Amino acid sequence: MNPIRSLSFLALFALATSASATSFVVTTDATVGALGATTDATSDVSSSFKDDKVVLAARDDAASFVASEGSIRGAHLEAALVHVRQVAPSLQANDMQLAQAILSL
Model pTM? Predict the structure, then answer.
């Protein structure tokens, strides 16, 4: 193998390794950030609504919502989301985070 080919191969290999590491770091950072936001929403909701009948009645609908990645929205879940947002208007969580929090109760 000639030296130019060997050098080109090594350069491409180094670039590919660097790109893979960078995308792994970006993916990991995004996943950890999303998990942190979900954990915050979960702890806020679970501590405040542990005994709330409207929220507890929405657990099955929340499970369907999470399993379907947001496609299935039951009436109990809709009522619980409205209720949670009325009781805790400062809570900054999307529907998926709230559904996951309801499931953790």
Answer: 0.55
